[in-house]
Automatic annotation (TrEMBL):
InterPro entries recorded: MFS, MFS_trans_sf
Cell location: Membrane
Cross-referenced PANTHER family: FI18259P1-RELATED, ZGC:174356
Superkingdom, natural source: Eukaryota
Protein name: SLC46A1
Record-linked Gene3D superfamilies: MFS general substrate transporter like domains
Sample GO molecular function, one term: transmembrane transporter activity
Residues spanning the membrane: 100-119, 131-152, 158-178, 199-219, 225-246, 284-310, 322-343, 355-373
Keyword terms, alphabetized: Membrane, Transmembrane, Transmembrane helix
Major subcellular site: membrane
Provenance organism: Mytilus coruscus
Amino acid sequence: MDERVPLLLRDNNSLQQKKNTHKSEYTKAKISLFVMINYFAVEFAGLTQPQYIYSYLENERESNNTSVDIQNNISSNHLKNCFNKSSYSTDESRERASSWTWYISLAEYGVAFPVLFYIGPLTDRIGRKPLLLYNTVMVFISFILKTIVVYGRFPLQYYVAASAVEGLAGTPFAFNLINHAIIADTTTLGNDRSLMMTIYDALLGLGAICSNIATGYLIQLLGFTYPYLVSSGMLFILPILIFFTLEETWKPPKDKSKTSVFKLPIKNFTLCFKRQHVSNKLGYFIANLFILLLVIFPYTSISSILTLFLLGEPFCWTSEHIGWYNAGVDFVKYLGGTTILKIMHSCCVCLKDEIIIVFAMLSSIAYLILLGFSNNDWMVYGGKSEYFFGKFMHLHS
């Protein structure tokens, strides 16, 4: 303690430091709540989407078959009807549903790709809170449109258009990007930040697990519209909570850059290749980005395809069965994998990250291969157990 500093000034500085610490803790608690609400809502409708598309196309193909009623899910006679259908008709419905799922993903992520290039730099230009509000409001609008489409049984082209609106929000990737920036603002580099990232990942998984279980039962009991209504309601509450409770954690610099907003992504990209910024680690950074792309691509696309796969023969799973299965997958992915990763880091100090990533890659490959050749429920469950270590790869990337 410096005796030359007045005691009153030291007390004021200490008090201000405590206030800032409490503010950071409150902010982290709010972010934890926001991520649970957001992922509960997004996953609630996300699990419903492929089942709705499959049922819509089945209803369209068999308009005179009363056993398929789009308002009452894939009806209570789904198991019997599924096994009675010809293999050709089942494959045809799944093939068409898979195509529509691809169109929806293309509309959503195709629009989101350029948006994400701007959201990153803009978080430093205008702050975190305005962009978080923009993201949540646009996602809410998208889900309202999807709810209307599902309730009115409008053609699937309208659903694709509603998904493009979600792309304008930057999708959940933008939501995570902004939240990670807030976490970086309110934590210190090291264990504090790593712990918060782990908690964030675990709560994200908790929201997904709860929504998967609830969605299966809600679809079976009340139909497809209600999951979208629940998601829209929660996404309506989320921006209100953010607006009234979240304080801005980033103060934009007073001497703002004169670079046009439209040129920001290009400037940030070329900055990495300027001589004064290039280091011998740039090659590793680019290689890691490429690896991240290879990791995200299969895991982003497999969810809807797997649901369609399980709806038809030889599985003929109901919405509740799919909900419980996805909840188990998310538990393994977000909670189980994270826990084992922390244990291995603590107990196996000599075990390098590279070795863990190799095990994770092999586990992921085994999971996808086993699913591809699955012809009974136990092979699907076995694939889930192989996925346990696959989460490591995602975490380390």
